[in-house]
Design brief:
Elements lengths: L21 H5 L12 H12 L1 E7 L5 E10 L5 E5 L4 H8 L2 E6 L10 E9 L7 E3 L20 E14 L8 E4 H6 L9 H11 L1 H11 L7 E10 L2 E8 L5 E6 L7 H19 L8 H8 L1
Length: about 300
């Protein structure tokens, strides 16, 4: 559950009926294998939207030291860690280049999605692996809560693997992603707008959320006690819900196809609600006027 605020069952409202095509209906079947992004994709998404984390290095006595740092990303997706010129971590990395960077969103809804630990090495003595003031790197947006000062140098992490800790995806407590799989994956196209979509549907279109999840779990709308949209990605929705006599759970609701952008996502969510509405109230066309006249005569 995302917050203490409970979205109560909304009153039903009338809609303009528009029956989906048969092709659209058939495409709702057989999507289980591709109904959510891969761990590599989600890991790239989380690292892309955060911008800071905890760098762990080994001190001279072998003790692990965790330090808050900011980072940027280049066009290939490699991570450049920002450190002050005289940071002790630079000396630690000279002695032992092994390190990890834990990245976890600080605010909802992204905080519930996942966290990622990047594991690799930072060579602070390699001229090709560091530069001053982040150069022309494509910076990830810094966290609003970050109080880190501007770094003097950025150092590239040579990635060995990424550890993905699923939040909403409860089936993956920890999943190891290879460096090649991580770097070849693409961040989700909705990563910068997902929070806005979540807020919009929870605050202004809660009825849609109830209808969508009601159809997904095959429970009558009247029996749904709670429903809240948690996250949106290019392949579908995560929704927290609770029915009468049941426990709260997170449900994955896939789109009929991958969405291309925010506008496409808005359309897909609206269509999913429309489909659910039609399943709840099957459309029965009115008999032709000529038939009614014949019957009356």
């Amino acid at each position: 559950m995302m917050s203490d605020k409970v979205l109560r069952h909304p009153k039903a409202s009338s809609r303009i009926h528009c029956a989906p095509s048969i092709i659209f209906r058939r495409s709702l079947v057989a999507r289980e294998a591709t109904n959510k992004p891969s761990p590599a994709e989600t890991a790239r998404t989380i690292v892309s939207i955060v911008g800071d984390g905890t760098l762990s290095t080994l001190s001279p006595d072998g003790a692990p030291i965790g330090t808050p740092v900011s980072y940027t990303l280049d066009k290939e997706g490699s991570t450049w860690v920002n450190l002050p010129a005289h940071a002790p971590e630079i000396q630690y990395l000279k002695a032992n280049s092994r390190c990890s960077l834990l990245v976890k969103p600080q605010s909802l809804p992204a905080r519930a999605v996942a966290s990622v630990s990047l594991v690799g090495r930072i060579s602070v003595t390699d001229p090709g692996s560091h530069h001053n003031n982040a150069g022309a790197q494509e910076a990830s947006p810094p966290s609003p809560s970050s109080s880190l000062s501007a770094p003097s140098s950025s150092f590239r992490m040579n990635l060995d693997k990424a550890l993905y800790f699923g939040g909403l995806d409860e089936s993956l407590h920890m999943h190891e992603v290879s460096a090649s799989e991580y770097l070849s994956a693409e961040p989700d196209v909705l990563r910068n707008t997902a929070a806005e979509l979540v807020k919009l549907w929870n605050e202004e279109r809660a009825e849609d959320v109830y209808r969508i999840v009601s159809q997904a779990v095959k429970v009558p709308l009247s029996q749904m006690l709670y429903a809240e949209l948690l996250w949106v990605d290019r392949l579908g929705l995560y929704i927290s819900c609770e029915k009468e006599g049941g426990e709260s759970k997170v449900v994955r609701v896939p789109f009929i196809r991958p969405v291309l952008d925010e506008r496409d996502a808005r359309s897909a969510i609206t269509m999913a609600a429309q489909i659910a509405w039609e399943e709840e109230r099957p459309y029965t066309p009115a008999p032709p006027t000529t038939s009614l006249t014949a019957v009356n005569n």
